[in-house]
Amino acid sequence: MDTRFAISEYHDAAAINRQLDELIKKPIYTIKPDVLKKYEEEYYDKKCAKSKEMIAEAKQVIPGGVQHNLAFNYPFPLVFTKADGMMLYDVDGNEYFDFLQAGGPTVLGSNPKVVRDQVIDLLNTCGPSTGLFHEFEYKLAKKIADSVETVEMFRMQGSGTEACMTAVRVARLATGKKNIIKMGGAYHGWSDQLGYGIRVPGSKFTQASGVPLYLFKHTQEFFPGDLDDLERKLRANLFRGGTAAVFIEPIGPESGTTPVPYDFNKGVERLCRKYGALLVFDEVVTGFRIGMAGAQGYYGVSPDLTIFGKVIAGGYPGAGGVGGKKQYMKHLGAGLDDSGMKVKKAFTGGTMTANPLSCCAGYFTLEEIDKQNACQKAGEMGDRLTKGLQELIAKYNLPFVAFNQGSVCHIDTVGTMHYSINWSKPWEIPGVLSATSERKKEMQHMGAAYMAEGLVTLAGSRLYTNAQYTPELIDEALKRFDRVFENIVCLEK
User: Fold this and answer.
1) Do the Cβ atoms of 309 and 289 come closer than 8 Å?
2) Catalytic residues, which ones?
3) For residue 194, which of 147, 252, 368, 399 sits 20 to 30 Å off, Cα-Cα?
4) CA angle 408, 171, 306 (to 5 degrees)
5) Greatest alpha-carbon span in the chain
């Protein structure tokens, strides 16, 4: 097994957070209004006419016109028809560098032939789903267990959200405790109990419209990277039902948007052991992207449960799962009979869970990532891209912040998710919410400018690289970022 990692040198998290602190103190820097208007008229209206027409029709039958949260783009979403390696093509025939990578799952690049051929063979012989056991269920589980030291057993789920829901149930069964603590700003799916404190630290229930507040009775958040805050909540929970589990994204909340110090994860592990809580690593983004051993292998941490998603199906649907130690995974036995160990089962399932198509795609994806050392290759290109962005920021004397966590690259132009809400100062909350809303709008405008230059990003603020990128392609992408950055203006001037 390849144990090399995508992260070549760990960043200075404290220094990056200081830069982000300064960014949100400054006025907004964004694309010039006249340049944005030109992009709208010359690119979107003229060169994306088929997309515009189709989205207008889609809005009649789809809320907002798209089915996926990442598909929105100002001034209107584009319709993509082809994905190949590091490139995307829209319905109008325009070509783009793909730094979205389907939201992170395609470390090998989009639609790799070596995986696609295996999937086609499976479809020709078995079909996508049977509801019964298939050999690739075993092969995928075995590959994951062989790669990630703490995973003794693995149970597939339909998505990362489902996997997080499952981990909550397992933790409560295994510990007999009630409370779940998560890092503020972290995203662990959209389930009721974990839709708490997402995106903005301290936001609590404010981002969870439609969820009755009583469902958050046993969900808490702690400030990102703050071990003292975590311990205070763990200690307090000793008198209110105990803490079943602590959930964290190992590179920081919201896929590393707020970076954490290198020793932070070890500190969380220590506190979990001290207070009898399970440590749950959400590796939906980092699993098999940071390295074959996951972010936990890089940080040298032994979580009790690990959440997987995205990469484990290689960009195919049905990507989710929970792995961990046998003493906890025993609660996830499948089947309707009561034979074998007499343990309480965490109720979980799904008709399309662990279907042959997803497991086949996942197994051969992980095999190829391992063989090709794709994590390290993608990380090298992430380093090159980030270094180039930092040079452009300096060239134009912009307050933007660029940093990289392997092949998870960040270009923060407005600091929307670096704000936090302090409930001890409620008079400040309206101002924070207003600022984040205004800055989010300008983040969308930046994303529109990138798209018009042939750069597909995640919300204009996050970039994923894959193993198919080359130095020459990264340098060409940087030329396009340069054309955007040379047209940035301070809105208060």
Assistant:
1) no
2) 187, 282, 310
3) 147
4) 25
5) 72
Which CATH number goes with the domain that contains 103? Answer: 3.90.1150.10
Residue pair 409/402 in contact (Cβ under 8 Å)? The answer is yes
Q: Is residue 4 part of a domain?
A: no
Q: Which two tokens stand for residue 332?
A: 């996830």
**What whole-number distance in Å separates Cα of residue 309 and Cα of residue 286?**
9
Residue 455: DSSP 8-state: E
Nearest C-alpha neighbor of 258 from the set 405, 436, 432: 405
pLDDT tens per residue, range 447-476: 999 999 999 999 889 999 999 999 999 999
pLDDT tens, residue by residue, 293-312: 999 999 999 999 999 999 99
pTM of the model: 0.94
Give CA angle at 194 (174, 363), nearest 5°: 70
Say how many domains are in the chain: 2
**What tokens does 319 get?**
């990507």
**Structure confidence by residue, pLDDT tens digits, 138-190:** 999 999 999 999 999 999 999 999 999 999 999 999 999 999 999 999 999 99
